[in-house]
Target: Transmembrane protein 115
Amino acid sequence: MPPNFWIWTFFTHSFIELHLWHTIIDIIVVFLYSKMIEPLWGTKELLKFYFIVTIPNALVVTFAYIMFYGFTFHEEYLFERPIYGLASFLGAYSVVIKQIMPDTILATTPLLKLKQDHVPLIIVMTSIVLWLLRAVPIHFVIMLSFGILISWTYLRFFQPHHNGTKGDMSTTFSFASFFPPLIAPVISVFANTIFELFVKIKLCQPYVKKSNVMSTSSLTITIPGADAADADRRRQKALKALNDRMKIKDSTTEAWPELDDAQQSPLLPATTHQVDNSSVKIDMNNLMDISSSRKDDLNQQATTS
Model:
């Protein structure tokens, strides 16, 4: 039997770290949450998301250690393997960033383009390599992986929005979008099968599509949750584009100084005259009178001489 049964450790295990570099990573993750996610969600929703991700992860790792003991009969999995750290919250952060900024290119190489969609899978593979090198314990890999899965499940189906909808049903946030295009169709079939099973046991709600068939010229289909999420993403992209344009405008203004009146060249006159060259009016009657009088004067001079 376990020497102690401290139920509150399910809430406090994520505040404990045994290694300095793990602590540094945790501080960076919490800082990024506070700067990028909290302004969008609010403090209450962020705390709710934190407990939704971390508490089930502790239960998952506990069950995994019990399974390991059942296969190996090593008592260390029951009494000597502590569960701690913010690995689940780190995995959840990669999912949130993917939802906010999908298809964002992080780096470009001659072979491929590293997108934000690839980050969750990359950090899972990296954690497995680190575990094989004995750099991280096995519970780190489990918590990171299930942090990604639990956070995606909550954001996909259950997170409430201001317009009354829940979840994010956009195609850019599907489970298959976390994987490379070569295996994405296979993952999509598997994910859809699991989703249909969850709908039957009423863990998830089915897609509710609303169509407007009153007009024969157009057909509108809306999926709850997708509009709000897409609108937030478009708003973020628009703000980023606006900031970039403002920076370009400021740099252009600094490069080309304005020419004030006091800085005009001394070769130019101080005052300028505006001339309207748009039209010229000629009085033909006056011109004919002037020419005839000039002709009479010439005739008189000729007779006198």
